[in-house]
Amino acid sequence: MWPESSESPQPLRSGLTTGSCATACCVAAAQALLAGRQPQRVEISLPRGQQVELRIEGYQPLDGHPDKACRAIRTATIKDAGDDPDVTHGATVYVELRLTDEPGVKFKPAAGVGTVTRTGLVLPVGEPAINPVPRQMMSEHLLRAADVYGFDGGFEVSVGVEQGEQIALKTMNPRLGIVGGLSILGTTGIVRPYSCAAYIASIRQGVDVARSNGLNHLAATTGSSSERAIRNHYGLTEMALIEMGDFVGALLKHLNKAPVARLSLCGGFGKIGKLANGHLDLNSRASAVDFEQLAQLAQRAGADQSLVGQVKSANTSIEALNLCQQANIDLATEVCTDALNQAQAVLAKRQPQLALEVWAIDRQGHFVGHARSDNWQAAQKS
Question: Would 181 disulfide with which of 129, 151, 164, 199, CB 3.0-4.6 Å?
Answer without folding.
Answer: 164
